[in-house]
Amino acid sequence: MKNVLVIGGAGYVGSHCCKAFAAAGWKVTTFDNLSRGWREAVKWGPLIEGDLLNPQAISAAVRDVQPDLIAHFAAFAYVGESVARPELYYRNNSVGTLNLLDAMVEHGVTPLLFSSTCASYGVPLQLPIDERHPQVPINPYGESKLVAERMLRDYTAAHGLRTVALRYFNAAGADIDGEIGERHEPETHAIPLAIEAAITPGATFTVMGHDFDTRDGSAVRDYIHVADLAAAHVAAGEFALANQGSHVFNLGTGVGTTVLELLAAVERVSGYPPVVVMGQRRTGDPAALVASFAKAKDVLGWAPRYSEIDTIVKTALSWRMQQVADV
After folding, report:
1. Which residues are catalytic?
2. Where in the sequence is the domain holding 230, given as residue range(s)?
3. 14-53 burial: b if 16+ Cβ within 10 Å, else e
4. What is the CATH number for 281?
5. Which of 6, 133, 137, 286 has the most Cβ atoms closer than 10 angstroms to its Cβ?
6. Comparing C-alpha atoms, which of 145, 167, 172 is closest to residue 250?
């Protein structure tokens, strides 16, 4: 049985990937400080409580688990917060990754999957964005991830690691089986907020900018179902075990959805129109981000299965209603 150590496995994407690895026959261990994750999301193996900013803690975890593969999800990922408090992002996302790489070198563990982001591209020069697109981030979140990607590349060259950076577009939705879902405090992701504005009296959804150069003036994003992301990580894990070097893959759908189209999908699925407020653009938000996933398809044999926007919204709504019923 192959053994994966999931850093940040109590969080949104990390927990879904833990389930996918377990379903594929891997032994799963989670390392998480639970600052932005949830103990109850750790369902597919043991939890080691620890912080990546403590070099001794991550070194001990790598030594004790001796994983065949490490999957690293432990990052802060709020663009607005990164603009207001960049120190949090460089410390957690960049320095935390440095500590993990040092532990891997120390204990001779080489394959690593890294949760990266389309935010490292900045304002796109063309759409869809492929992996050769220049990386010119426009916010500290994207910069902190780009710094980490450069560390992966340099450690791979110097120390013979095997690394795969997976650049996500917009992770969305909830587990197809309803076992886990999206939960952030505070919640900043568009789909949960839009659902809340549709089903909760008094809740509103703010459209952050309605004067972009897009088909309806609202921002365009490539929403990818979290179950599709999880399947890609299992495929990338097998790839990392079999291939030397440092590699990158985009994970998206190639389909852009505007914010207003997303709100229409929430209304279709829920039967209720979200209550909408028109707001100003956020600092650091490009008008459109849409992926080319051709490389992941060709090399990993991966393609999204659940990422049609109504399917994403249905799973997210089902998860939200389940949480209401459990209260």
Report:
1. 141
2. 3-172+223-251
3. bbbbbbbbbebebbbbbbbbbebbbeebbbbbebbebbbe
4. 3.90.25.10
5. 6
6. 167
To the question of pTM greater than 0.85 for the whole model, the response is yes
**Alpha-carbon distances, residue 258 vs 121, 149, 196, 243, 311 (angstroms):** 19, 29, 18, 37, 16
Write out pLDDT tens, residues 289-304: 999 999 999 999 999 9
Residue among 15, 113, 98 nearest 68 (CA): 113
State the first-to-last Cα distance of the chain, in angstroms, to the nearest integer.
38
- Whether 217 is in a domain gets the answer yes
Residue 203 sits in the same domain as residue 318:
yes
Together in a domain, 147 and 264: no
Q: Mark whether 237 and 123 lie in a shared domain.
A: yes
Dump pLDDT digits (tens) for 256-314: 999 999 999 999 999 999 999 999 988 768 899 999 999 999 999 999 999 999 999 99
Structurally, the chain folds into a number of domains equal to: 2
